[in-house]
Amino acid sequence: MAGIESIEKGRVMGQAYEPVRSARLVQERFWPQLQAFLEPGDVVIADQGTSYYGCAELPLPHGCTFVGQPLWGSIGYTLPALLGTMLAAPDRRHILLIGDGSFQLTAQELSTVLRQGFTPVIILVNNDGYTVERCILGADASYNNIATWRYDRLVEAFDPQNLAITAKADTEDTLAAALDTARSNRDPLVFIEAVMERLDAPESLVKLGKAFATADYHHAPVS
Fold it and tell me: Does the pTM exceed 0.90?
């Protein structure tokens, strides 16, 4: 995917994205907004779930590296994997996209990232549980729910030296402000919590979820 030159949904890659003031964050518009934030040479890491399926379809600027692992579908993989990518390429900007369910599996590795002095941009997609699983089966089932965390406070707990900047966004303009903060602050770790609805997902994941439900459970998921 690196270095693809293309047009997606009528928008040229790299073109400035104009957020709609007070418009709630939705997957369909979130990913083009993220794409406009990307720069040549970035390392983009996407955890399995809405993050992977949203990122995998984005044309990337020249020299970007995309890291994902859809074959095993192992959620929580990418936060510790971020340590590896930053050790391998410390001079590049690293951007992690991870869901709240995935983050809760390996959250303690954020402490290691901070202890090592790494300064990635971490965007946590908070859609209230295992949305990737809801797309397959159990849209409203309790087994796809997770505990509610104060993610900004967790960053503070792991960051006694105040090395990180945190932001929370639930609208397009608040996300734009958070991304501007990340763009202008390259030294500290920037942690952005992007809040979206629990059943909101990229169209490719919705279609794949229905296929998995049919193959694995012999019926389509409840919509």
Answer: no
